[in-house]
Write a structure and sequence with these properties.
Strand order of the largest sheet: 1-2-7-8-9
Number of helices: 9
Order of helices and strands: HEEEHHHHEEHHHHEEEE
CATH class: Alpha Beta
Helix content: 40-55%
CATH architecture: 2-Layer Sandwich
Number of domains: 1
Shape: extended
Strand content: 15-25%
Distance between the termini: 74 Å
Number of strands: 9
């Protein structure tokens, strides 16, 4: 009798262990399956978000094309300059904005077509840095970062001899920038400085003019050494509704004829589009550099995807 009771006790414990193991296996399988389903949904939502962002890009391209047909000038009162409102889509929404990058200082203007430093643009960049309360020596450092030679310019240059001594070491690219974020690597640049500078600079292909209808206040202040804050405030008030009626008459008392002829413009070829798509917990941000030709044809020349 004792032996039978002992055997039944062992059998009961064994059955309980098997039931517990089966429950654990079933729970793990259920959890793994839930994770697989979740991962699949996230991937599907991300793919959908990317397609929605590309659709938004196509929509903006058509708006910019129509804008060129309607007007020869670009200003902040036009349709493209308005933020894209939040539009509902299945499971989320899409929103964004577009900026005129030629309302900023083009960092690649620091060097000419031969890869040599352009002194006029170098001085303008120094004035921009001063207007922002930043160290003007970053102008010479940035110019050396882009120019084709390996000789540090005087007095503020920095070439390979500086960067190869850092940890980890690296070298100057000695070519035009594809993104302003590359300036984060120049000697002395920190996060706080770059955050202040970034809204007023762009990295555009080739030499570009500044659209004064959309230029930021510090960029306008940098146009001439004799420009004052009061001058800029007057210019901003004058252009407020529909841009400047006549650039030459507005700027002739404030800047030199060379600035008017070689730097100032009232139209734009380069725009930065930011589209944000939120679907469920998935958030995709697409940034696109758009280039518009003389006939209004718009081409994406640089595209990046992120989450912010």
């Amino acid at each position: 009798m004792m032996q039978r009771r002992l055997n039944r006790g062992v059998a009961l414990i064994t059955a309980m262990l098997i039931a517990a193991l089966a429950t654990m296996v079933a729970a793990n399988l259920s959890w793994d399956n839930a994770l697989d389903v979740r991962r699949t949904m996230v991937l599907m939502n991300r793919d959908q978000a990317v397609q929605v962002a590309l659709g938004g890009e196509s929509w903006i391209i058509s708006i910019l094309h129509q804008d060129r047909e309607d007007s020869e000038t670009d200003h902040l009162g036009e349709l493209w300059a308005s933020d894209l409102p939040g539009l509902p889509i299945e499971g989320g929404e899409v929103f964004g904005n577009i900026e005129d990058l030629q309302g900023r200082f083009n960092i690649n203007n620091l060097v000419d077509d031969r890869g040599e430093i352009d002194e006029d643009n170098l001085n303008q960049f120094r004035r921009l840095l001063n207007a922002l309360g930043l160290d003007p020596r970053f102008a010479g450092i940035a110019a050396d970062w882009i120019d084709t030679d390996l000789e540090a310019s005087f007095p503020d240059g920095a070439e390979d001899s500086i960067y190869t001594g850092m940890i980890p070491p690296y070298r100057t690219p000695n070519q035009p920038l594809a993104s302003v974020s590359e300036l984060a690597a120049i000697e002395g640049m920190d996060r706080a400085t770059f955050k202040v500078l970034e809204p007023h600079i762009a990295a555009l292909p080739g030499q570009t003019k500044i659209n004064v209808n959309t230029a930021t206040a510090p960029v306008l202040l940098s146009l001439d050494a004799n420009m004052t804050t009061a001058d800029v405030e007057g210019l901003l008030a004058e252009r407020e509704s529909a841009g400047f009626a006549d650039i030459e008459s507005s700027f002739a008392p404030l800047v030199t004829p060379d600035v008017i002829n070689n730097i100032l413009d009232d139209e734009t070829q380069h725009f930065q589009l930011k589209v944000v798509v939120q679907i469920d917990t998935v958030r995709v941000t697409m940034n696109t550099l758009l280039q518009r030709g003389p006939q209004g044809n718009v081409t994406p020349i640089l595209r990046s995807l992120g989450t912010t």
